[in-house]
Design a protein that fits this description.
About 35% of the residues lie in helices and about 30% in strands. The protein is of the alpha/beta class.
Length: about 325
Amino acid sequence: MLLEIQNITKIYKGKVKANDNISLSIAEGEVFGLLGPNGAGKTTLVNQVIGLTKPTSGSITINGVDAIAKPDYSREVCSFQAQVQAPISGLSTMQAIELAGRIRGGKKAEVHKRALELAEKLELTEWQKTLGLNISGGVRRLVAFCMAAVVPGKIVILDEPTNDVDPLRRRTIWQEVQTLAKQGSAVLLVTHNILEAERVVDRLAIIDQGQVKGMGTPASLKESEGDVMRLELILEPKAAAPSLPDFLKKPVVINRRILSDVQPKNTTKAIEWARGLKENGTIEEFYLGPATLEDVYVRLVKTHEDTEHHERDAR
């Protein structure tokens, strides 16, 4: 494996565990996702990989090299798009992209050609000469992606690369991510966008409260849910949540959405019941289908939250 993370724990102020015994590995040519809510510990883990933060315990090796003992090596072989906006206010978009490529050792002509190619694919040509100070957050995010991809490292780390980016350009970014992997880079993708993660990653880890709650391919994680079906209801604005029949199990409410399990033998009853809710104006729409990666995510993260609530109630 190109990147090996073993038993990484990061404790702040002697008691706050931002990362709690995390282990994972990523191979060349693989897109690996870190999926979790805000504050789950994803960015903290990334900062340790690139040498910005030192772990409390555990080991990180890149290409067999101790990345904790040699953080300069980490920064040499990793190209990185941070979650925060890149500081490019005094540079034009093309200057920023080409400078990043030259710093990473790319030849001037090759970097220029690749920068133009990325700018065209992501429809940035009209901002080529615009200073970073005068571009929107979404465009700045695209420029930051190009800075990481113009001369990719052995490991390409992308922390929420599609925040503030429109749907069409997001699709292009995911295509470029897969191209980076095909060219041999290991891509570590940090995101909380479940739908997009499922489409682009080869494997992923679901992280919450600093711990790995589940890991595997999207398919293997969904298989862990068994043959149960999922019913999703979208409530009408201001509509009260309906009383759920007994055949709907493990309900989870997320804002206007209600998710619940349905055994295959009860699918007809579930559809008839949901149609009735739609006809009387309680819900806007409903969906019944097999388990998705979001279902796995909700179960793993929600279970942890429920456990905490039960523990607090017991105290």
